[in-house]
Design brief:
- There is one protein chain.
- By secondary structure, the chain is mainly alpha-helical.
- The protein has two domains: 73 residues, no CATH class; 212 residues, MetI-like (MetI-like fold), CATH 1.10.3720.10.
- It is globular and about 85 Å long.
- Pfam families: BPD_transp_1.
- It is found in: Cell inner membrane; Cell membrane.
Length: 343
């Protein structure tokens, strides 16, 4: 276990170093002044420029500049936004939880709907029920996420008028962003009607969560179905049936766990797709997450915000991917033996 943890720790640190180096290189690749791209501060005169150049080591060799940049990131000094003038750490601290919240609800939807449907389709393999579920999952998975989001807006918001068109909360509620997660912030808020606020927040969450979660759910259905079909045709399942073991006992003793183990590693791949889809959907629903924030930074040519925002998103994806893969290793240590055997 210690060896696995140390290996993943080294992998995590090396990956972050590469991401940080790429982020720092953008300072020179973006158009404009290097000092402004790095700090977000526009010097008022040459004296201030020279002082800032010395402060951020821009008059030193590239390696010295990079390590000073790395130390600044670790200390929480991420620079300032050229558009708003606010510290980037504060802006990302508000935008990132909104994206994580949306992605979390979509993933829960995929787990609690996609996996049971996939199990059911796999157990009813090649029947009419299986063909129906499989066809629906393939069709849903084929939809571009932005197209599906637009269809939901057109139908539920414009035609039926049963769901809000944009935002996280109505203007009637003034909720202080303590954690950045709207449902938790409502619980912590005072002097409001919590029931009404929760209903309003859930109505705003419904459509973007459905747009992201539908595609992820369809993917989980297909992955789970394929895994269950592989398991039920294994020799030990045939042997259990020959001994007269009931189908329910076979399912709970053998199929449930053994079909789930191949699914878990594929969840790490789904995380990247899930967060990418969330960032796309945010722009359509005006959801104040990191995706909408980055789009605004592109429109405003806010290069410091783009640099730090891309680093933050990359770090989040890498962190979640490594955590999921590490969790898979812990619950299924036999993977190590098979992977070493295939090298």
């Amino acid at each position: 276990m210690i060896q696995i943890l140390s290996r993943y720790g080294v992998l995590f640190i090396l990956t972050l170093l590469v991401l940080t180096a790429m982020s720092f290189s953008l300072v020179y690749l973006f158009p404009g002044d290097v000092l402004e791209n790095l700090t977000g501060i526009v010097p008022q005169n040459e004296i201030q420029r020279e002082a800032l150049m010395r402060q951020f080591r821009l008059d030193q060799p590239y390696v010295v500049q990079f390590f000073y940049y790395l130390s600044s990131l670790l200390q929480g000094d991420w620079g300032y936004s050229l558009a708003s003038g606010l510290p980037l750490r504060e802006e990302i601290g508000i935008a990132m939880p909104a994206t994580i919240e949306l992605s979390t609800y979509a993933m829960l939807m995929a787990l609690f709907i996609g996996i049971p449907l996939g199990y059911y389709a796999g157990l009813k393999s090649y029947s009419t029920t299986d063909h129906t579920i499989n066809a629906l999952s393939i069709t849903t998975y084929s939809f571009p996420v932005f197209w599906l989001a637009l269809i939901l807006i057109l139908f539920f918001s414009l035609h039926l008028d049963i769901a809000p068109l944009s935002g996280r909360l109505s203007l009637l509620f003034d909720i202080e962003p303590v954690t950045g997660f709207v449902l938790i912030d409502i619980m912590l808020a005072e002097d409001i009607d919590h029931g009404l606020a929760y209903r309003d927040a859930i109505s705003h969450l419904a459509l973007p969560t459905l747009a992201i979660g539908a595609i992820t759910t369809a993917s989980m259905v297909r992955i789970t179905r394929r895994s269950v079909i592989d398991v039920i045709h294994r020799p030990y399942i045939v042997a259990a049936r020959s001994r007269g073991v009931s189908e329910w006992q076979i399912f709970f003793r053998h199929v449930l766990r053994n079909a789930l183990l191949p699914i878990l590693p594929l969840m790490a791949i789904q995380i990247t797709t899930l967060i990418t889809n969330a960032m796309i959907v945010e722009t359509l629903f005006s959801w104040p997450g990191i995706g909408s924030w980055l789009i605004q930074a592109i429109y405003q040519r806010d290069f410091p915000a783009l640099r730090v925002g891309m680093l933050a998103v990359s770090t989040l994806v890498i962190t979640l991917t490594i955590m999921v893969d590490l969790f898979n290793r812990i619950i299924d240590p036999s993977r190590e033996k098979y992977e070493r055997a295939t090298v």
